[in-house]
Amino acid sequence: MDNKGIVQKQLDQLYSILVGHRENRMRFRNWCVTITIALITIIISQKLVLTKIQSIIMLISPIFIFWVLEVMEFTYELIDLHKSEKLEELLIKDKIDSIPIELLWASSLKTKALKGNKNRLLIATILTKAILFFYGFLAIMAIIALLVV
Q: DSSP secondary structure string, 119-148?
């Protein structure tokens, strides 16, 4: 198999991984909403005797956990998206002399460059507005629902 074929296989693999990342992120949000609504229902039914602070902590904990999970998933999605962009640039060329090892999927998991990029991306992803808005809004609505009752 020539280098162009290898790049195309890597690209196909990355495309399927990117789809998986996006599906996982939506699953995290769906589960977070489901669990939050279930907890609100349990707390409002008063079958569980908790103070307001305990109730708020109980509600915020799964929201925080799912926020962290989505941030980590989005970080890996951005890393894979960057790799796919670089592989697409290589594929456009008429002839590919060599393929940088950090663009190959299995080899890229071991490089030091990935660890540095992962840390920078993790910090940037934590502050992503869409993710912050979703989980922040959900947390605020959950707290309001508790305070109203």
A: HHHHHHHHT-HHHHHHHHHHHHHHHHHHHH
- Tally of domains within the chain: 1
State the Cα–Cα distance between residues 142 and 149, nearest whole angstrom: 11
Residue 103: give the domain boundaries.
Answer: 3-148
> How far apart are the C-alpha atoms of 107 and 51, rounded to whole Å?
51
Q: What's the Cα-to-Cα distance from 41 to each of 66, 88, 94, rounded to whole Å?
A: 19, 49, 61
Q: How far apart are CA 109 and CA 50, in angstroms?
A: 45
3-state secondary structure of 26: helix
The tens digit of pLDDT for each residue in 42-65 reads: 988 988 888 889 999 999 999 999
Sequence-distant (≥ 6) Cβ neighbours of residue 122 within 8 angstroms: 71, 72, 75
What are the pLDDT digits (tens) for 85-140? Answer: 888 888 887 776 766 666 665 555 555 555 566 677 777 777 788 888 999 999 99
If you ran DSSP here, which 8-state letter would residue 22 be given?
H
Q: What is the pTM of this model?
A: 0.80
